[in-house]
Amino acid sequence: MDLTVVIPTYNEAKNIPILVERIFKVFREHTLDGELIIVDDNSPDGTWEVAQQLKGTYNNLEVLRRFDKRGLSSAVLDGIQLARGNIIGVMDADLSHPPDNIPELAKPIISGESDFVIGSRYVEGGDVENWPFARKVSSKLATLVARALTHVKDPMSGFFFFRKDVIEGVELSPEGFKIGLEILVKGKYKHVTEVPILFRDREYGKSKLSWGVIFDYFSQIAKLYQHRFLVARKFMKFLSLVKSRFYIMVALIFFVITFTVYYFTGEGGATPFHYFVPLADAFLHGRLYVLEKPTWLNELLAIDGRFYVIYPPMPAILLIPQVAIYGLKANQTLASVFWGSFNVSLVYLLMRKLTDNKRLQIWMTMLFGFGTIHWYIASIGKAWFFAHVASFLFLTLAVYETFSSKRPFLIGLLLGASFWSRLPTILSLPFFLIMLSDKWLRRPNDTSFLERINFIPILKLGSGVGLFIILNFIYNYIRFGTPFDIAYSIVSKEYTWVYTKGLFDISYIPKHLWIFFLKPPVFKSEPPYVMPAYMGMSILLTTPAFVYSVFAGIRNKLALACWSAIIPIALLEFSYGNTGWMQFGYRFAMDFYPFLLVLTAVGIKSTLGKDSDLTWDQKLLICFGILVNIWGVIWINKFGWASLWD
């Protein structure tokens, strides 16, 4: 007998006849003297009975029905005890492992080249098919946890072959569901080979993955670390590191929660206003223009038969990895949800730099993630909104760097990247000059003011920002023959009813101030009675907790720096002809949100002790903002309840 293939089963009645036929067909075509052992845990769907009926057709088929045992690993071990072959193979019953690869996995062992062969998804030529994004992420994380135990790239694979003597005298645990990893850690072998396979998602039945399985996996991992590293030295070191870096776990938890909430409260699909997807595709193909102009993408500028995206290109650059994989089918909304979730974790890390009060850190992160219009904006992912998400990302990274390592050139680069997402954010430069003044402005002495200035940090900051300004000039010159952003000016001529006095004019300010400070929702005499307005809504309603920003003062360095960024950006936005329609709240405020969040945190902090909890009124306003944003997101995204023009 050349080899024995062991297949553990539970509720796989529909898959078993197909799989058995394919395996024995491979045995015949490759003249392999093989047997197949199916170990079933008394499946309610009668898998064992289906397998028993197949024994009349296939001579080398054995079926073991277990009544009192459960679990994949113990099923495999029981199957191995019945095996007659010197080479043992293990594979799943859900048709995810291709039987056609059996000869490739068995050959290195038969020839003596290897002792253990893995059907790998993660070596060159290997891949997975029809896996959702969440499944890919969870698989990668589980693999990452196990990588310290073995050098193979796919230690989580359930499709593997090994010589029977690899486990002779080895004590293997029947617990868990990754028996292959167990053998990799404890087995007696010299050479391991990984063979690329195409892993397909199951065709019939339901996945066995559950929270109990996940818990068992981590329990199994802990025991394997203990085995590999004696008294779990490295595992204990890892746990110690986790404890000392607990804030990273909190940030990760915020990311997962936010991603889940944003994803499931979105409109339910990819936005059609995905200007940055074709632009990213154009960049990958060496072009600055897109090839066609669908009717719904009305803000593409046509010049000499070429169509140019009028918005700054940084969001498209963020999309390049996704577009490189999925092409024009890339989901811009999914990218917006991802980076929006990252923004929430980033705000938590920023709050840690501002205050040691852990309660304030959590409340401020909740405020931003679920009590501001960032939720709505990130969940939609339209081009205008994704630009806000990208701009906030880079601008907040620049602020974070200002509170941590204070590297002027990096800060300049991040500010430049924000500028290349949303142009008005360049006006936040005074914030960084003020906050970095300890680097470029020496203490007063008898010398003149100019002699007190150290120009090197200023030049580094300016070089980082200037790089993107120059890139923007070049980008515009290649497209339009001028270094300036004329695209908006050209497109605005088609909307003279909006831009009645050009792109910018002080006469627009009252309209913006009305929306920003006072605009209420729309009240109706019939259901749903109260609706958001796409024209916008007061920030005092969407995020009333921002009122605490006034408690941060003005005479301290940090408050002065924040207001020096907020005011010029706001003045520019308020004098713009368009108020941000279509939107929930006032979306242009996102351009100065990082500084408003800092002021709000400082304002609340000024009323609290080091570890004091927030006051009832502070919690009330934060919770009110969260409720308003839940209302806005659900009303618009799920029911389409919003007023167009009121």
SSE topology:
Elements (H helix, E strand, L loop, with lengths): L2 E7 L6 H14 L4 E7 L6 H8 L6 E5 L6 H11 L4 E4 L11 H9 L5 E5 L6 E3 L3 H14 L13 E4 L15 H8 L5 E5 L1 E3 L10 H18 L4 H12 L1 H19 L11 H9 L15 E4 L2 E4 L4 H13 L5 H23 L3 H14 L2 H7 L2 H21 L4 H12 L9 H7 L1 H4 L8 H4 L2 H26 L6 H6 L16 H10 L3 E2 L6 E2 L7 H4 L14 H18 L18 H13 L10 H23 L8
Helix pairs in contact: 8-9, 9-12, 10-11, 12-13, 12-14, 12-15, 13-25, 13-26, 14-15, 15-16, 16-20, 17-24, 24-25
What form results from the Cα inertia axes? elongated
Q: What's the total number of strands?
A: 13
The rounded distance between the terminal residues' Cα atoms is: 80 Å
Structural class: alpha/beta
- The number of helices is 26
Helix content: 40-55%
Unreliable spans: none
Mean pLDDT: 89
